[in-house]
Amino acid sequence: MNYIRKGSHPILQEQIYINEDGSRLPVLVFPALNAAGFVQHCFTTRLGGVSDGYLGTLNLSFTRGDDPVNVHENFKRVGAVFGKGEEDFVLTCQEHHTNVRRVSREDAGAGVTKPLLWTDVDGLITDEPGIILGTFFADCVPLMFVDPVHRAIGASHSGWRGTAARMGAVTLKRMHEEFGTEPEDVLCAIGPSICREHYEVSDEVADCFRKEFPAHVQEILEDKHNGHAQLNLWEACRITLLEAGGLPRNIFVTDICTCCNPELLFSHRASRGRRGNFGGFIMIKDEKSAQEH
Known about the structure:
The protein is an alpha+beta fold. Helix content is 24%, strand content 24%. The chain has a six-stranded mixed β-sheet with strand order 1-2-3-15-7-4. Helix 4 (167-179) runs parallel beside helix 7. The chain starts with 12 loop residues before the first strand and ends with a helix.
């Protein structure tokens, strides 16, 4: 698969799984996260599912006009990557806030096989094995967190509002409160999302980032001749993680842009809103999954 990458050396690697019908399901992984040994994670693409048309094929949203039968089948296929079923997912209810919820085995299936009991939750954390944390994207930034000391994980959705409100720092703080996590121990990943070259923002959004990141304006904003600016969400998220106590060597930034790769990843901007969602998924291995992987 030929992705347009932003770096000369791949940060993300592709893995191919085979569905029960013999079709291919490609996913993207950060080797640095899996190297922790006790976690499994992936970012799906738009390939390997059963959805049709502009939702084709691996749409993971129940709210974008897809047949629920298709979405359930797509979740089954992603679950198989982890050696799990639909009943093992726990999903966010993303509304561009910075609320982070600790979840447990009691929550398993939430958003897929049973209704969500929460709203306004853009981040999930857990220290329990065998449940798959799921977040969803089509240009916004996926954030993943692995604490190898306390064997805890987190997954968050960070759009421009969440990035301005430092979603990465909020997630690390919640992990510290719940598990004793120290930021300097955490492996942090900034996943596939829109790059600066394709993310032109309004004056209002640019001014928000000038206000929230006054010492880093040159790093995250590039002014354009039309009075607008190009916003670098990746760098803003990286700066947030560093300021929260993360170590540079433990922060891994994507080299793949959604808008540069609309045939392979859902992009709201590239499709002008006619799209599905891809997912970011992470799980602490239980005894069964550890044996299989």
